[in-house]
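Q: Hi! First time asking for a complex rather than a single chain. Here are the components, and I think there are two in total. Is that enough to go on?
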Amino acid sequence: MIVHAEEVMGTVVSFHVEPGECPAVEAHTALEAACTRLHELDDIFSTWKPGSALNRFRAGILRLPQAPPEMALVLELCDEARALSQGWFDPWAMPGGFDPTGLVKGWATEQALGILELACVESAMVNGGGDIALFGLPKNAAAWRIGIRHPWRPDALACVLKADRAVATSGCYERGPHLINPKNGRMLFRTASATVVGSSLPLCDALATALVAAEDAGPELVRSLDGYEAYVIGVDGEEDATEGIVFATEGVR
Amino acid sequence: MHTGGAPSILTGTGPSTPVTSSPSTTSPAKPPTGAASSAVGTAEQYGYGVLAVKVTVQGGRITDVSTSKLQTAEQYSQSLAQQVIPMLRNEILSAQSAHINAISGATYTSEAYAYSVQSALDALGVK
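A: Yes, that's all I need. Here is the structure of the assembled complex.
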């Protein structure tokens, strides 16, 4: 297995790649290409780099037709995610102006996985700072086992879930209160951690953000979306999960 | 591990100084059979304040998990402080023994990665 950790997008992206029949040289080349792509997307969408296309776009200096084509694509994805989340994910309602960060990291991570998938590796896992894209199956196992971080204990798990494509989690425990309720501007939530499992990582990412803001309405929101499941932990420690969440119980504890 | 990302918009609601981490005690040493012993885990910044979890072990098994320290900013009412005490008593799972492929959580910073379970899984490079 090839393991790599790339520092990018203000976090670290971890790669676990099982080349299988794919020659090691090609697998390594694909891994390098995936990392290059992550840095390209970071250059476009960083909210920290003053000269990023996103920051120039937000400032009105850069118009959409002149922006990298990825900008229009992300705007479209954000619009779609806003509708699917019933307005609970709203990059246009952020205090500093349009901020697609809650979707872009998942989208970038999924693209990195796509590059490995195209190289025909046997299986791969890309973890973009907590947002996970999966392809194939782990060696000698029937499913990917994803630990969900305990919101108050970085070294512990709240549970282990099975997944086959994408898992994203949001919460305010790691970076302080940075999330916002797009409907009333509040920044305190009764939801400590929200995890969404599904097929599209950018949508899982956006929905996880939406679910923190949607609080009690979160799981019901996800039940309306085919192929998406949710697991949430309240600030009181109460857990809730939609019916399709598969908990891994064997080998746990 | 607190990484200095103090809340900026809700001015003054976070702890004024970074949390000093004490050695983690997630796997308390087994006490003599029958005797109960407690260990306090690493103090954690969790968005609304600081807390540490107290784990009580009896006969080599975890018998209780409680919050041993809770500091919240003054702006928050006591009722909120009580509301945010974690209650996942039956769900304290050891990441080391769960045979996981990856860990999902709120986005960690590059600095926090070094202390994350994912970095441990990367270092192992297996499973």
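A: The first helix of chain A runs from residue 24 to 45. Let me know if you'd like any chain examined more closely.
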